[in-house]
Amino acid sequence: MPMNPLEHDQRYGELDQVMRAYLGQPADDTEQAPSLALTAYLRHTWNTRPWSLAIAESQVRDYARNPPGRLRLRLGEFYPVPDVGLPEPDIQAWLFLVADHIKRSIEEGAVPPPSQPATRWEWHARFPELAQLLGGWFSQDMPDEFDSHGAAVADYVTGTEAQLVARLTGEIHELLALDLDEADCASALAELGMEVDPPAPYAPSAWLADVAEQLVRAAPEYGPGHTR
């Protein structure tokens, strides 16, 4: 019978995170170096959930040692590894290689240096609330739903918990701190789900800064005499 959510996460939860990091990226790990996808996973996980790396190594290696048969996959009793562009006979060896890289990173303390996100997965993992705003309020349908970009942001603020709005504000400042040029900033917005251009005459970074100011103006005041 299919796995329940608790069983899935206990057996394959972190394996699934590793596999998601490869979506849209080549599984071109070598014995000498991890792939761009795995490097992105390692960098983000070291900086946010370092204890999860040992779980990832164990789950990836266990899966490689005990690959499921077709019947158990069809019954939903095993996690199905997504298509990573490798021939099926090569998957097992590749999983062992991924596990070896994670193990080496843990044992040697080999943390990828800080940088801007390198893959779509890493952009979304690092800026989840900004991805929520851009993908949900700035799709190609945005001009039909809102009179302006500012109206879309105001609608987001109205329907979103204050703590998430505060998190979004921090994510915007973090992205701006990457000091991307305007072309890279526009690419980042697209990776995060934005399907329309910033309003004239704003460049992408200037528009983000303006959104952050709009969020701060909309934030409730706290302090003595203020309650939620």
Give your account of this protein's structure.
There is one protein chain. With 228 residues, this protein is mainly alpha-helical. The protein has 2 domains: 5-108, no CATH class; 127-218, no CATH class. Helix content is 61%, strand content 0%. It is built from 12 helices and no strands. Helix 1 packs across helix 3. The longest helix has 18 residues, at 91-108.
Secondary structure: helix percent: 55-70%
Nearest-integer average pLDDT = 90
- How many DSSP H or I helices? 12
Radius of gyration: 21 Å
Distance between the termini: 46 Å
Number of domains: 2
Blueprint of the fold:
Elements: H1 5-20, H2 36-48, H3 52-65, H4 70-74, H5 91-108, H6 120-126, H7 128-137, H8 142-145, H9 149-158, H10 162-177, H11 182-191, H12 204-218
Helix pairs in contact: 1-3, 2-6, 3-5, 6-7, 7-10, 9-12, 10-12
What key attributes describe this structure?
single chain, about 230 residues, mainly alpha
Please summarize what this structure is.
This protein is mostly helical and 228 residues long. The chain contains twelve helices and no strands.
